[in-house]
């Protein structure tokens, strides 16, 4: 298996950056577009477990657009073959000093393009010395 083929890595990185821009600007249409429209798509959030595209869409539609700005750090995107990737990043918000968010996404290439099929978001106290 080829890992991190340059063209595939560039494609997924562009989609990840598109996701990040949509997240901080609350562009719900783009966020909805980037998740796979499938009942098996899931997102484990900070305070919610969302099963299926419909629940993820409903969460995004109801979410407050306030306080979404964040800074990412230590982003790692790894591609496996031409059709699968994992994107992981840390994030920091000014509104939660001393805390670090962690986000992981599994991306799969479908005929309609790259889509997130699973996502996990959590926040912890920032580990000392890291």
Give your account of this protein's structure:
- This is DUF4440 domain-containing protein.
- The protein has 130 residues and is α+β, with helices and mostly antiparallel strands.
- Helices cover 28% and strands 38% of the residues.
- It contains three helices and six strands.
- The protein has helices at residues 6-24, 28-34, 53-62; strands spanning 42-44, 49-51, 71-80, 84-92, 99-110, 113-125.
- A six-stranded mixed β-sheet has the order 2-1-6-5-4-3, with helices on one face.
- Helix 1 (6-24) runs antiparallel to helix 2 (28-34).
- The N and C termini lie far apart (33 Å).
Observed structural traits:
130 residues, single chain, Nuclear Transport Factor 2, Chain: A, 28% helix, 6-stranded mixed sheet, alpha+beta, 3 helices, globular
Per-chain topology:
Layout: H1 6-24, H2 28-34, E1 42-44, E2 49-51, H3 53-62, E3 71-80, E4 84-92, E5 99-110, E6 113-125
Parallel strand pairs: 1-6
Antiparallel strand pairs: 1-2, 3-4, 4-5, 5-6
- The strands making up the biggest β-sheet line up spatially as 2-1-6-5-4-3
- Rg on CA atoms, Å: 15 Å
Helix content: 25-40%
Structural class: alpha+beta
Shape: globular
- Put simply, the count of helices is 3
Q: What can be said about the biggest beta sheet?
A: 6 strands, mixed
What would the CATH topology be?
Answer: Nuclear Transport Factor 2, Chain: A
**H/E topology pattern:** HHEEHEEEE
Number of folding domains?
Answer: 1
Straight-line distance between termini: 33 Å
Mean pLDDT: 96
β-sheet strand percentage: 35-45%
InterPro entries: AtzH-like, NTF2-like_dom_sf
Protein name: DUF4440 domain-containing protein
Organism: Bradyrhizobium lablabi
Pfam families: AtzH-like
């Amino acid at each position: 298996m080829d890992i991190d083929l340059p063209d595939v890595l560039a494609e997924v990185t562009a989609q990840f950056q598109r996701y990040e821009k949509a997240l901080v600007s609350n562009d719900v249409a783009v966020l909805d577009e980037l998740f796979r429209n499938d009942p098996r798509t899931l997102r484990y959030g900070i305070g919610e477990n969302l099963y299926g595209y419909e629940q993820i869409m409903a969460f995004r539609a109801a979410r407050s657009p306030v306080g979404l700005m964040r800074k990412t750090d230590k982003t790692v995107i790894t591609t496996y073959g031409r059709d699968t990737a994992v994107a992981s990043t840390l994030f920091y918000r000014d509104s939660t000093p001393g805390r670090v968010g962690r986000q992981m996404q599994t991306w799969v290439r479908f005929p309609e393009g790259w889509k997130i099929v699973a996502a996990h978001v959590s926040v912890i106290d920032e580990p000392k010395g890291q």
